[in-house]
Amino acid sequence: MRVLAVIPARGGSVGVPLKNLAPVGGIPLVARAVRACVQAELIDEVVVSTDHPQIAEAARAAGAVVVDRPGELSGATASSESAVLHALDQLPADPGVVVLVQCTSAFIDPSDLDAAVVKVLDGTADVVFSGLETHEFLWSAEGAEGRQAANGQEARDGAAAVTTVNGVNHDPAFRPRRQDREPHYRETGAFYVMRTEGLREHGHRFFGSVAVQPVPSQHAVEVDTPEDLEVVRALAPFVDRPEPIDVDAVITDFDGVHTDDRAYVDQDGREMVAVSRSDGMGISLLRRSGVKLMIMSTEHNPVVAARARKLGVPVLQGLTDKRTVLRDWLAIEGLDPARVAYVGNDVNDLGPMSDVGWPVTVPDAHPRVRAAARIVLTRPGGAGAVRELCDRVLAARPEEVAETPAPRAELRLSPVAKPVQIGDALVGAGQPVYVIAEIGINHNGDLDIARRLIDVAADAGCQAVKFQKRTPEICVPLEQRDQIRQTPWGEMTYMEYKIRTEFGVDEYTQIAKYAAERNLHWFASPWDVPSVEFLEEMNVVTHKVASASVTDLELLRALAATGKPIILSTGMSTLEEIDQAVEILGTSRLVLMHATSTYPLPPEEANLRTIVTLQERYGVPVGYSGHERGLQISLAAVTLGAVTVERHITLDRTMWGSDHAASLEPSGLEHLVRDIRIIETALGDGVKRVFPGEEAPKSRLRRVTV
């Protein structure tokens, strides 16, 4: 090893408690020091000497080797040299050069480290320190002790204390211009590069020939006080180089992030806001890359809902406690908070920003928010801030390897599968498409909302409504049960929320009666075996297997034992997993549903030709369960042979709840059913013939030659 960097980072600190763990730009000071050393090309290894377990953990995460610093070398009077020498003693052999790096300097340029190391390696100097060039005039209070004693006596006598000073680097009688003076250098304390042999011999950092490595003024702030910490935190957005934002999810505030935080109000009190068109393309690209997106807003404003719909992003509105809602959402989605970005601009965003690995803000944010941010974007809200964020997130995503496109599959007729009887309807080829309105949990535990959604389905011309049935004590993971959620009914645990929104015998009895009155089938997706038994007692016409349950073999066996027809969704499943499920369920009363479990579904993930694949592989009727926005993909599925179409429905996509945003509103469902019936008519029977409407044009236009 030629060059070793040693970073002393004890846990004790008088001026700023646990200073070395204080975040600057969202990164602890010790991690910033380690990263600078790791990025320097000439430093072979980085060691952090510490007596504190959390500092050790942060150092290892940043890429350093940790040396346990003994107590006698960890006190306030212990020198940094003692920590460096102790670290050297732990090595089998000394490196040629050792670099002492201090965490108290938040901004260290790896290229400055390399330049300083070169000066020692090539023999230019024995020691090189980081210094700030200065032309300041310095003064010294010489004989200070005597004057302090005199001043003390004067103070006791009631006289004013006076301190006199003398010039240090100048003659007070001669004040040359800055450009006429040779510069001096102030130690910044950031780093010291030394010949290891010389350090061993002399025991301190300065010996032999000493040189300076100039650093810029913005890198020269040393953190010793809380005020210093505030300064470097304010500087970080301007000093740190823009870096890709490597995350799996992005959550944004709305006002001040998607907008410029202003509202235009007309004479009728209606609000309008200004947004950037470029944000839409950025959001679209981010969705395609697989990054999850969410908008959280304390406001409950139709403007927010309209913009969210336009962007295709789920939105939660009217939130009083964003932090709790964020924690719940991350737990439900199974996301690591360290790989999540939250973009805010005001003090109500400080809570959620503190819970994620990438707190982000806009340049005109509240000062406290700017100080808490790891990233401060360069563009303001409403002027491309969201697009800038998207571009930086995309920069961290792995580039897709270009593949030779597969030959376009030929559309061909699949073997005609025997229709499946569900209630009084036949589901299969040659039959009307069986349209299922998925109410799911969009009733929000309200029986009146459930009835209104049944009306929506009936009025649109659907054949069935579907719900979801769970036993919360079985389905809710232990680690999520006591998590607090903000709900329309107030603050409660996640378990209380799931119980609150779950319908029981009384509710489903009324649902069954009302669905029958509206001439609709009703059934549900059971998520556990007791729910299968419950639905059997309710005498449902069929059972639906959710995509998440394809590999729940215990549940599949219980469903197979009912003898009822089964509708099996195939989202997030491999063919091998579907094979295993079909083997248990059998094919005599089975309808498969092609699905992609992305909410909302981007067109490039729809993969509708899988409908043909499933028809040919299993020889059963195949339908489509969609989670996209709009109608086009569902209608295309019908042209490819889908015998049933299932879509989530809602009264309003802005309602509280996780599934509303990817659901169809009443007018959308009505248009879907209307267009499906038009397509069914237009598909015809495939027999080529001359239709009556062609006879007149034929007689006028047809020319026959021999």
Automatic annotation (TrEMBL):
Annotated metabolic or biological route of this protein: Amino-sugar metabolism; N-acetylneuraminate metabolism
Signal peptide annotation: none
InterPro entries named among the record's database cross-references: Aldolase_TIM, Cytidylyl_trans, HAD-like_sf, HAD_sf, KdsC_fam, Nucleotide-diphossugar_trans, PseI-like, PseI/NeuA/B-like_N
Annotated PseI/NeuA/B-like domain residues: 453-688
Classification via Gene3D superfamilies: Aldolase class I, HAD superfamily/HAD-like, Spore Coat Polysaccharide Biosynthesis Protein SpsA, Chain A
GO biological process: carbohydrate biosynthetic process; N-acetylneuraminate metabolic process
Catalytic reactions on record: an N-acylneuraminate + CTP = a CMP-N-acyl-beta-neuraminate + diphosphate
EC numbers for this chain: 2.7.7.43
First-tier enzyme category under EC: transferase
Gene Ontology molecular functions: hydrolase activity, acting on ester bonds; N-acylneuraminate cytidylyltransferase activity; N-acylneuraminate-9-phosphate synthase activity
CDD domains in UniProt: CMP-NeuAc_Synthase
SUPFAM superfamilies per the UniProt record, alphabetical: Aldolase, HAD-like, Nucleotide-diphospho-sugar transferases
Family label: Belongs to the CMP-NeuNAc synthase family.
Name this polypeptide is given: N-acylneuraminate cytidylyltransferase
Species of the source: Planobispora siamensis
